[in-house]
Amino acid sequence: MRALVIEDDAALRAQVTKILEDEGYAVDVAADGEQGLYMAEEYPIDIAIIDLGLPKTSGIEIIRKARKGGRSFPVLILTARDGWQSKVEGLEAGADDYLVKPFHKEELLARTRALLRRSGGWSQATLKSGPISLDTTAKSVSVSEKNVDLTSFEYRVLEYLLTHAGKVISKTELTEHLYTEDEERDSNVIEVFIKRLRSKLDPDSTLSPITTLRGQGYRWDLPRE
Amino acid sequence: MTSLRARQLFAASLVLTAFIALCGAGLEQAFNSSALQAEEDKLQGLAYALLGAAEANDNGDLGIPETRLPDPRLASPQSGLQAAIVNDRGGLIWGSPSLADDWPLTLAPQEVGTWRFQEQGDWFSLTFGLRWLDRADAPRRYTLLIIENNTAFKAQLKTYRRTLWGWLGGAALGLLAVQLLVLRWSLTPLRKLTKELHNIETDQQGNIEATYPSELTPLTDALNSMIQSERNQQTRYRNALGDLAHSLKTPLAVLHGVTDEDVKDANLRGKLREPLSRIQAITDYQLRKAATAGRRTLSGPVAMRPLAEKISGALQKVYADKNIKFSINIEPSLRVRADEGDLYELLGNLLDNAAKWCKSRVQISANLSRRNVELIIDDDGPGFPENAENLLQRGVRADNQTPGQGIGLAAVNDLIGVYDGKIELQRGPLGGGRVLIQFQA
Hints:
The complex is a heterodimer.
Chain A: E1 2-6, H1 10-22, E2 26-30, H2 33-42, E3 47-51, H3 59-68, E4 75-79, H4 84-93, E5 97-100, H5 105-119, E6 126-129, E7 132-135, E8 140-143, E9 146-148, H6 152-163, E10 168-169, H7 171-178, H8 187-201, E11 210-213, E12 217-220
Helix pairs in contact in A: 2-3, 6-8
Chain B: H1 4-53, E1 55-56, E2 62-63, E3 81-87, E4 92-95, E5 115-120, E6 123-133, E7 139-149, H2 151-201, H3 217-260, H4 266-291, E8 302-303, H5 304-318, E9 325-329, E10 335-336, H6 340-357, E11 361-369, E12 372-379, H7 408-418, E13 422-427, E14 433-440
Parallel strand pairs in B: 9-11
Antiparallel strand pairs in B: 1-2, 3-4, 3-7, 5-6, 6-7, 8-10, 11-12, 12-14, 13-14
């Protein structure tokens, strides 16, 4: 999953970025509203975490413009002005949730996770599809109640596919959503990870959870529960 | 006496009444004495005429032959005019034919050459002492007495009095009416000003616009600049507080993040956490308290329903997983004279709290009777714990899991205190908690 963090305070920006990166997100950062708005409009992000009190372009302005431009990723606003007027204003502009400064790491992660799975149409913290279940909180995966050991990157690929279960996901899309602009990408790596996932989740080739559509990409094909 | 109008009217009528009364009494007095003087003069004239007609009779005493009586009334009994001549021993020596048997006076002899005029009961009497030389040129002393009934005089006086007071009363009423009109006219600017202020309060106009008499201009100018500065100041104040909150809380968030980092020494983390949460609680509380505007004098009332709709719409997003159904029973016409920011805080905190704890339903109703606002928020959650009142105290939170957001009820309690209101936590009809708020606005 790719997250955009727009926060003008350098220390807090670094902190939030670290929290998200530790959790396995690819994180893009912007220090002011102008840069943030550009990223929100142009980058293939899955979630944006936006401070409301930004220099140049305000957080609310960014949300409004991004929404107007058709961007539908979930938005979590960070606000120090804990007045309800500003919260309501932010939510009305198109944000999906708010977090009042200061906050705990767990709180930030819980809200980010909840917004992401909601955007994929999941209402529970554990995504269940056939015998496979992925616990977004514990970051664990099991098949028929048996734990499966996945590397961090394997988990990220699976989480993305499962969150968007039923949708065709191209290799480019997967790359874009798992790496930031600055990271080196190799779309061939994706094929390797898909192969490994298949063998770990479906060693006997009885489930076929991931379908390859030639020239288009991959699709999670087990029904959602 | 609280109204200018009443004061003016009271003073004017008091002065007018006193003036009219004194004036009437003076006029009446003057008329009375001049009428009495005229009566005396008339009787004196009659006395001279009688004396002129007097001649000695056979006994050598004074007498007036009936044919020479100067006034025909003296000749007819019951005419009300009588005359008599009494000698120095008090004996009647002559009486007009009109003189009644019970003529009312027993006289002391009058000094020669002097007059005495008096009013006694129904009568005026005039006595005159005289000396008469009889045929032997011997002086004899007599007293001439004329008595006239004063009924006609009294009637005349009464008519005069009636006419006088009638006119004076009429004049007084007329003057009062004029005074009333003058008052109305001169108080018109004040009434206009009151109306403009009312319009400002109800948001129908921004400031005082009409032109006022020069005496009021300093006042209206001052009011205008006060309204303006109050508005600006409130906005500036809020913005400044927002900036302060932002610049305080961002570093606080960083510090918080530091205590969350796993790599840090656990001992140090523990030491940092406690003072940090204290700083946070104090900052929250003070900023909130400072942001509370309280009752506003010159701002318009705020409609409650759109506010409740906005906030519940926003909360529906935040608690999307619960798919909460908010029912709002607030008349669209219900407007509360309170600061909009305060109402946002009040409804925001209450609805957020209800949304956090409910299963799927939250109900909001509000009533306004006179200036008493009653606000009820119900949810279908687990209800409040037993020592629920503690939740209203600063520093105690209903949930410790979400720091920075569990301050709702205490915040509401503080805010309601500014409006001299009260808050009650009860069990509601939906099975969950009910918050009842009452305040004056």
